[in-house]
Amino acid sequence: MLSRDSSYLRIDCTGVPDAASFNGLLDESIAKSRGGVVFVNGIEALSPSAMEHCLATALGLDASQDAPRARLVLSTTLSADDLKVSSAYSKMPICARVPSLKERTPEEREDLILSFLRSEGCRIGSDVKISRGAYRCLVNADFSDNIAGLRACVTNCCAKAFLNREGDYVVVRPYLLPSGLLSSAQIDQQPDDGVLIDASLDAAESTGPVEQALDALCSLDERFCAGELSVSELVSQAVSAVRGVEDHLIFDHGVASSRSRAFERVVGAVLADAGSSYGIELSRKVAFLLAQEICLQLWPGIGLAKRKSACAEQISHLLGAVTSELPFASSVSDQVAADVEGALGISLDHFTKTLLTLCVASESRDAKALRTLCVILSHGYSTATSIADAANRMLGMHVYEAVDMPYDQQLKDIVGPLQRLVDRHSYCTGVVFLVDMGSLEEAYKALENVTDSTIGVVDNVSTGLALEIGVGLLGGKSIAEVLGDATAACVTHCKVIERVNREDAIVFCSESGVDAAERIRQLVSQSLPRTIGARLLTRPFKQLVANGSNDAVFSEHRVCAVIGTGDPGVVSVPFVALEDIMSTASASKVDAVFGRWLDASELSSFHEKLLSNMTLQNVIRSITILDPERLFHEIESAVHELQRRTGEKIGSNAIIGLYVHLCCLVERLVTRNPIETYVGQDRFEEERADFIESFRQSFSSISTRYRVEVPVSEIAYVFDYISVSAAPAREERLGSSDLLLDE
C-alpha cells in the first residue's frame, strides 16, 4: 500500500507558533513523506484556521496542494464533545479511542512495566529485578498521564535502586515507589511479595499455572497419539493436570474482578439449569472456575494467547478423546457451553471446553463407588462448600456434597435440595449428614418418608471430622461403626501455656572479647541516673553468633536489646551499636531501649552522662588492651590517609563507628583472632583491588608497629561498613526521595 521510498513524519502542534507556520510545516511534511504517513500530535492546540486547513488537507479538499497525498493520523486528548475538536471527530472517516492505562488489561500493564524495566537496565548497564510486591503495586497503579507517568515512575524507582544495588543487579522494592503511590494503593500482602522477578524475561515467555496446564495437556496428547497412554489413562492424568489450574484460579488469582463476578452469576444459573436437566449437582466452585476461565479466554495475555495458538490442534484432538471417554460429562459441558453462548454471546474455545468437561467429570466421577451419600450442611456463604472441597481433595475422590445455608434460612427451605440429592443417589444404601449446629440435626426427619436408607447425623462438622468419616466409609465400614470411631477420634483438646515471668535484661557483647564487653557495660551502668528494672549482662560475641535466639540468655531472661561493637545477628532482639550510644544523632535508638524504665528527665540526664563517659578515647580505652592514646592517633592518621587515597569523604556519624571497628580489628590481629571468612571474597579481591591496596598503604605503619598483616577478609568488612554507613548520607545529598535521575 505504501511505496518503498515513502516516509513517516511527526508534527507536534504544541511547538508550532501560529497557523501560517503550521500550514507550511504540514504541507512540507506531506511532500517529504512521498505518499507515506504524517502523524499530527495534539490537534487541540491548533487555531481554528490551522484546524480547518488540517482537516481540508486530510480529507483531500485542498485543491491547491500539488504534492502527493499522504495518509494523515491526527491525535487529541480531548473527548468528541469538546468544541475544539468536535469538527475533527465528525469529519474524519475513522476515529479510534486509545484506552487509558487503567483501562488496559493487567497483562498489557505487566508487559509495559517489564519493558520499561528492561530499558532502564540498558541505560544503567545492569540487570533489573523487581519484587512481586512492588510489581503488583505498579500493575494496579493509576497515573494521570497514563503510560508516560508509568515510565517516569519506573525510571525514578530504578534510579533510587541503583544507589543501593545488590551485587550484579538492581532491585526495585516497594519502599522505592513514590510515597503518593504507596499511600493511595490498596496493598494486599501476599506470601510471595519478596520473590524477585527478572525483568529480562519477556511476558510472553513467562509460565504460569494456566500455561503449565496447557503444556501438560499437550504433552499428554502427544503420548496418547504415540500409543504410550490408553484413553482412560489419558483422562485420569488430564484431570490431575487440571487440578493445578483450579488451585491457581481459586487461591492465587487474586480478588475476582467485577466482570468475572458478573460472569459467575450468569454461569451459576446456567450450571443450575444443566444440573437440573442431568440430575447432578455442580458446586459453586465450578461456576467460579468457569467464570475465571472465560475471563482468561477473552483477555489471555500475550504468553497464554501464543501458547493457545501453538497448541490449538493438540487441544482439539485431546477434546475429542475426552469426549469419547466421558460422554456424560461431555453432554453436560455441551449444554453449558450452548447456554453460556446464548446468555453472554461467548463461544467457549477448545481449551476452556476441555477444562469444563474434565471439571464436570471430577465433580461427579467415583460417586457411585461409594454406597453412602455424605452431605455437609452448614450456615454461611460457602462454609459447607469449602469443607467438602477440602475433604474431597484430600480423600482423592468426590465423597461429600455440600449445602450452604444463609443465616436467615429455615430448615424447611433446604428440604427440596436434600430430596433432590437423595433422588440422584438412589443407588446409595445410607445417608450421612454432617451439620454445624444442633438445629440442623433434625434435617433427617424431612427424608424419613423419602428414603429407606440408613441415616446418620453428626454435629460440630470440621474438615478433620469429614476426613475421619470419609476414610472409614471408603474402607468399607458400616455407618454406625464409622460415626462411633470418628466422634471418638475427633474429641476437642485444649492446652493453656502459663505465662513465665522472666526478668528483663540488656546484653552486652564485643568482638574483642568478654572483658571489652564488660567495660562497655560498666560505662553504660555508670551513666544511668538510677538502678533500672533490668539486669545488665555480658555474653561472648561468638557464642551469640553461633547460638542466635537459642542462646540460654534468651530463655532465662526477657532480653530487651543487645548492645556492642558488632551485631551478632539475633533477629528477634533489637541491636544498638556502640557508636549509636556515643552519637547524639542516634538518641532515639537509646531511648527506645531505656525509655521503658526511665522518664523524660531521667533520659536527659542519662544522655548527659553518656556524653561525659562515652568520649571516643574512653570507649577505645574500654574495648582494647593496647595503649589507647597511641592506638587512637594511629587509627586517626590511617583513616585520614585512606580518605585521601580513595577520594571518598567518610561522614561524621560513620567515622565514630569506624574508629571503634578498626580498634577492635587491630586487637583481633594482635591477639591472633581475626575474621577469616567473608562471603564472596574472591569477587571482592577482583573488583576492589584498588581499595585493598589503598587500605594496606594507609595502614602500613600500624601493620609495621604491631607486626600484623590485615587479611582481605577484614578489609572487606571495613569496606562494607564504610559503604553501608555512607549510603544514607549520599542519598540525603541527592535531595528528595522522589528525585528523578535522568542520567
Describe this structure in words.
The protein has 743 residues and is α/β, with parallel strands linked by helices. Helices cover 55% and strands 10% of the residues. The chain has 32 helices and 14 strands. The strands form 4 sheets. The protein has a 4-stranded parallel beta sheet with strand order 8-7-9-10, with helices on both faces. Strands 12-11-13-14 form a 4-stranded parallel beta sheet. Strands 1-2-3 form a 3-stranded parallel beta sheet, with helices on one face. α1 links the parallel β1 (8-12) and β2 (37-41). α10 (258-278) packs across α14, α11 (284-298) packs antiparallel against α15 and α26 packs parallel to α28. The longest helix has 23 residues, at 712-734. It starts with 7 loop residues before the first strand and ends in a 9-residue tail after the last helix.
Question: Which terms summarize this structure?
Answer:
10% strand, disordered C terminus, 743 residues, 4-stranded parallel β-sheet, alpha/beta
